């Protein structure tokens, strides 16, 4: 099965659930035997639950991490983070344009743009070159206005209440 028309979706905002929403879409697509590739910007380490699930859902779901373990310093990213993000953007462009995948998720790419790791023009170029049958999802906080304008669907996750503030750490199987 191929998609008749692939669109561009953006999941942004300061609330929890952007990556989770994209993984829900990936689950739905793999159920229909569509091929899905998630490229995770600025994420390394693990193993995380989604990586383990991808192993079980292969060959329909592929997840590629392109970052170092730990957090990227927002105000002063390491040179290695900049290099890895540049390489991830190249990989993303090849993956989107290659047509092997029906759904491509660029997880945390909006955050990579807002931190100056990835140029917004590179993301917009990738969006313009997307083949007609490929669905493209871009996640992460602080989506640039130009990306929002170029997308077909934009969802903003807004934090109202979060248990992290009450001291609940990331939980295996829920956040990782």
Description:
- With 176 residues, this protein is α/β, with parallel strands linked by helices.
- It is 37% helix and 16% strand.
- The protein contains 6 helices and 6 strands; from the N terminus they run βαβαβαβααβαβ.
- It has helices spanning 18-31, 49-57, 79-98, 109-114, 120-129, 145-150; strands at 8-12, 36-40, 61-65, 103-107, 135-139, 153-156.
- The longest helix is centred in the middle third of the chain and has 20 residues, at 79-98.
- The radius of gyration is 15 Å and the shape is globular.
- The model has no long low-confidence stretch (mean pLDDT 95).
Order of helices and strands: EHEHEHEHHEHE
Number of strands: 6
Rg, Å, rounded: 15 Å
Query: DSSP helix count?
Result: 6
Uncertain runs are none
Which class do the helix and strand fractions yield? alpha/beta
End-to-end span in angstroms? 31 Å
- Could you tell me the mean pLDDT? 95
Spatial strand order of the main sheet: 3-2-4-5-1-6
Question: How would you characterize the largest beta sheet?
Answer: 6 strands, parallel
Report the principal-axis shape: globular
Helix content: 25-40%
Beta content: 15-25%
Enzyme class: transferase
Pathway: Cofactor biosynthesis; adenosylcobalamin biosynthesis; adenosylcobalamin from cob(II)yrinate a,c-diamide: step 2/7
EC number: 2.5.1.17
Family: Belongs to the Cob(I)alamin adenosyltransferase family.
């Amino acid at each position: 099965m191929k998609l008749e028309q692939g669109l561009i979706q953006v999941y942004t905002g300061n609330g929890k659930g952007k990556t989770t929403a994209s993984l829900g879409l990936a689950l739905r697509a793999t159920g229909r035997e569509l091929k899905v590739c998630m490229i995770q910007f600025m994420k390394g380490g693990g193993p995380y639950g989604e990586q383990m699930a991808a192993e079980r859902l292969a060959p329909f779901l592929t997840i590629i991490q392109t970052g170092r373990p730990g957090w990227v310093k927002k105000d002063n990213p390491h040179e290695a983070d900049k290099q890895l993000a540049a390489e991830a953007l190249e990989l993303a462009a090849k993956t989107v344009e290659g047509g092997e995948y029906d759904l491509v998720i660029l997880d945390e790419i909006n955050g990579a743009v807002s931190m100056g790791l990835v140029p917004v023009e590179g993301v917009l170029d990738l969006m313009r070159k997307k083949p007609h049958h490929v669905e493209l999802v871009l996640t992460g906080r602080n989506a640039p206005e130009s990306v929002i304008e170029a997308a077909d669907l934009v969802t903003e996750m807004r934090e109202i209440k979060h248990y992290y503030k009450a001291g609940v750490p990331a939980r295996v199987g829920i956040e990782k």
